[in-house]
Amino acid sequence: MFVPSQYRQPDSSWMLDLIHGNPLALFVSNGSTEAGPFATHLPVIQDPDWTGEWSDDLSGGRLLGHMNRANPHWKALESGTMNLLTFTGPHGYVSPTVYQTTPAAPTWNFTSVHVHGVVEKIEGIENTLEVVKATVRAYEGAFGAGWDMSESLDYFRKIVPAVGAFHFRVTGAEGMFKLSQEQPDEVQERVQESFGGRECTRYQAAAQLMSKLP
């Protein structure tokens, strides 16, 4: 991903926060010349068994994901190959009316993280089930209401043969946080105020990020 210098995140914590807060990734893999690339939206979590420290470009980190085995993407996926996970955060349209100057051009503020890494398919029903359980624990803790999965484990065992799970060893990442940094301070403030006044939560979230810019 091409990231102009003014849109680079202040530090790696911005990328991690975006990934953890927006964990439904677009998983992209190379396909054949005839089929073209594969792209699948799927949930991704940090591997709970990985105890390392995140580097500035996230390299060395470990993630977990899973998809439906009936998906042609899964059938084409090969262990040891390089793949891409893209995560999208808050974004919104910026009208030139906010700039209060002419000439001007509209734009779209957005936040995104592209994570490159090597995939390893996970073998075995029990190992796959552990990925599903880890995903439930992560999402119930972050977004849920404390649901107890214990009474549904038999159901999990019935459906998990149709699940394909994988490790994702991160080799590097780029974050794009395009939040009007190229504009004068007073224009940035107007964009932030405009976003913060919207009812749409993604605009509000973008405004909150703008308030944290150095």
From TrEMBL:
This is Transcriptional regulator. SUPFAM superfamilies: FMN-binding split barrel. The lineage of its organism: Bacteria, Bacillati, Actinomycetota, Actinomycetes, Kitasatosporales. It comes from Streptomyces lasiicapitis. It comes from the Bacteria. Gene3D superfamilies: Electron Transport, Fmn-binding Protein, Chain A.
